[in-house]
Design goal:
alpha/beta, Rossmann fold, 10 helices, binds S-adenosylmethionine, disordered N terminus, 8-stranded mixed β-sheet
Length: about 270
């Protein structure tokens, strides 16, 4: 009888826990549902175009051309759920920090990835958090498009980077400034302007080393993402609300349309701290 008294509440807890735990994500409140869905579809805690393939492009380049960066301090700016920073650690980067303006994603990342030091910081004031000349490598995967005052952020990043440090920007791009699109969270997208970015980087203390147009690759990546949504719809429906799935699908169909019509593009930029 006494045994039963202990066993029943334990079983109830287990059953309750099962229903309160709809996916393998740690439970953290205030996470944006559409971004969670994106991260689930991408099969890692990434919310940038090209998933692992995009990160591999960067890792390969660094290992071939700037391998000293592996031992230096690295900063993932706008790290989101933390999957990219963790992937760098798993690929030999020894000291990785992650910052994001959204405390909910930082709580999530902290609870899941212990080898990265995460903190909730606005990139526009990153020099309040880190010393001057601290980083050897600073990178942004689909973050700069969310920032209107790019020069302020790039200047702040230059402050905390040592002379000769490497900066990598992976993002949406535009040739001509057009009406801002809305991103998955409903905020305006401000893609990198190909007309302005070199000057913006120079003004903020960076010299451009390489600009690689990824527009055609972005089209393929977004086609694959939408295909994955189709293939996994049943599974996704078990975890997310119909309205969130519809919003997600509409956002990415629109982005793909803009990419196909070359209104929007994709770019990978490397720069060096002057
Ligand atoms: C599309 S997500 C990309 C996340 C991550 N880089 C990845 O690839 O998975 C953009 C991220 O940038 C963050 N962000 C936007 N503005 C920021 C700012 N001023 N400072 C720090 N993070 C910012 C957002 O909170 C969001 O997590």
């Amino acid at each position: 009888m006494k045994k039963l008294l202990y066993t029943v509440p334990f079983l109830l807890l287990l059953i309750g826990g099962y229903f309160l735990w709809p996916s393998s994500k740690p439970v953290v409140s205030n996470l944006n549902e559409a971004r969670l869905m994106l991260s689930e579809l991408r099969g890692g805690d990434f919310t940038h175009a090209g998933d692992r393939e995009a990160v591999d492009m960067v890792i390969t380049k660094i290992k071939q051309e700037a391998s000293e960066v592996l031992n230096g301090n690295c900063l993932d700016v706008g790290c989101g759920f933390g999957g990219t920073a963790d992937y760098l650690v798993k690929n030999g980067f020894k000291h990785v920090w992650g910052i994001d303006i959204d405390p909910a994603v930082i709580n999530y990342a902290k609870s899941k990835y212990k080898q990265v030091q995460f903190s909730s910081v606005d990139a526009a004031s990153v020099s309040l958090k880190f010393d001057r000349d601290f980083f050897s490598f600073v990178y942004l995967f689909n973050v700069l498009y969310a920032i209107e005052d790019k020069v302020t952020v790039l200047r702040q990043l230059a402050r905390v980077s040592k002379p000769g440090a490497l900066l990598m920007i992976f993002d949406y791009s535009v040739e001509e400034t057009t009406e801002p699109l809305l991103d998955l969270t409903g905020k305006p997208m401000r893609p990198v302007s190909m007309k302005k970015i070199k000057q913006q980087l120079y003004e903020s203390g960076w010299e451009v080393l390489e600009v690689r147009d990824l527009s055609e690759t972005f089209v393929v990546w977004y086609e694959q993402l939408l295909q994955k949504l189709e293939d996994k719809k049943k599974e996704i429906k078990g975890h997310f609300l119909e309205k969130d799935i519809a919003k997600f699908s509409a956002t990415y169909i629109h982005i793909l349309h803009q990419l196909r019509h070359k209104i929007l593009g994709g770019v990978l930029i490397y720069a060096k701290r002057i």
